[in-house]
Automatic annotation (TrEMBL):
Residues 44-217 form the Extensin-like C-terminal domain. It comes from the Bacteria. It comes from Halomonas flagellata. Pfam families: Extensin-like_C. This is Extensin family protein.
Length: 217
């Protein structure tokens, strides 16, 4: 049966023909919908706008080329969501959407479960950098060259506790457990998630990227 023949009795989070909403329960269809929005600016912005009023601060940006050879298309500037950021950042619209869903459905539930409080702010190392993969002088451009990846280093909880990837990844207590739950939860949304177990270059942060399909290392 083609997806457009699915009946209205199919829940929207399983229905391929119904637009994605940030609070739809996550299913394999959710990931498919997210990928389909890569070339659909209006559809992606509409999905972002399903966040309840006042819970997301972002600005759509015109296509532009801040650095020669690295044009940015279908991007937004993220100023804040349910969490504050150490600084705003430019993101492809699907990256911004993946982050918001991850934050609402994986990050905050993990904090509430393990600490009984919420994540108040997130420290990141940025999203856009016009460079090749692994800093090479030539070859394939990094996801950062198109603002399709965000590097996250630390989480500040509402009760004042601070959790960093560098200091707590190998922690055997709740901080380490939290970081591992965050990593696993991110793998449900992002195309690739890289952390300390991947290589030394990621010892102090998680790389949340849109390319690939559930590459989790």
């Amino acid at each position: 049966m083609a997806w457009w023949h699915f009946g209205d009795d199919v829940p929207r989070h399983w229905h391929p023909g119904k637009p994605l909403r940030v609070d739809d329960p996550l299913t394999p269809v959710s990931r498919w919908k997210l990928r389909r929005l890569a070339d659909n600016r209006d559809g992606c912005l509409a999905a972002l706008d399903t966040v309840p009023a006042g819970e997301l601060r972002y600005s759509p940006l015109d296509d532009h080329e801040p650095v020669a050879g690295c044009p940015l298309e279908k991007v937004v500037r993220m100023q804040g969501s349910g969490v504050d950021f150490n600084t705003s950042f430019v993101a492809s619209c699907p990256l911004a959407l993946a982050w918001v869903i991850f934050e609402r459905q994986r990050l905050q539930p993990a904090a509430e479960e393990l600490f009984g409080t919420s994540v108040e702010s997130v420290v990141h190392y940025g999203s856009f950098a016009c460079r090749h993969v692994a800093g090479r002088e030539e070859g394939r451009l990094s996801e950062h060259a198109s603002a399709e990846a965000l590097d996250v280093a630390a989480f500040h909880l509402a009760d004042g506790r601070r959790i960093t990837v560098r200091n707590h990844w190998h922690d055997e207590g709740p901080r380490g457990e939290f970081l591992r739950e965050v990593r696993d939860g991110a793998c449900d949304l992002f195309g690739n998630v890289l952390g300390p177990d991947y290589n030394a270059a990621h010892a102090d942060h998680f790389h949340f990227g849109m390319r690939g399909y559930r590459s989790c290392r």
